[in-house]
Amino acid sequence: MTVPTDRDHASVVALVECALVELTHETVGAVFISRQVGRSTRTQYVARDDVGEQFQKWHFDDRLGWHETTVPRRTVRDELITQLTRSASTPSERSGEGAASEPDTFVVKPVRELRTP
Questions:
Q1: Mean pLDDT per 10-residue run, the chain (117 residues)?
Q2: b vs e for 15-24, b when ≥16 Cβ sit within 10 Å of the residue's Cβ?
Q3: Which of 12, 16, 63, 84 is most exposed, with the fewest beta carbons within 10 Å of its own?
Q4: Between β-strands 39-47 and 28-36, what pairing exists: parallel, antiparallel or unpaired?
């Protein structure tokens, strides 16, 4: 889904909390894709344990490639809230250039459909 830029902070937090519950209880991952002029990044999160306290994070930058880390739930929550809140700005505000061709997106989808290095 396109990032909901018209939502207040409480709605973004609720969306992130719902996504974290799904990541913990289903075989799904959360994916945030940010597109700026001349650059694209993709961040994916998948729960590593049954209680959802540790997550595998894959970050892809089309200039730097893949980076993989393990992060706690709190970090995933804070990063997603920041990413979704920051996406409320227009593409030209984020890049300082012309508008990006596509909006940022956030989706929860089956792990088998995630891209990995």
A1: 70 94 94 87 94 94 92 97 74 48 88 85
A2: bbeebbeebb
A3: 63
A4: antiparallel
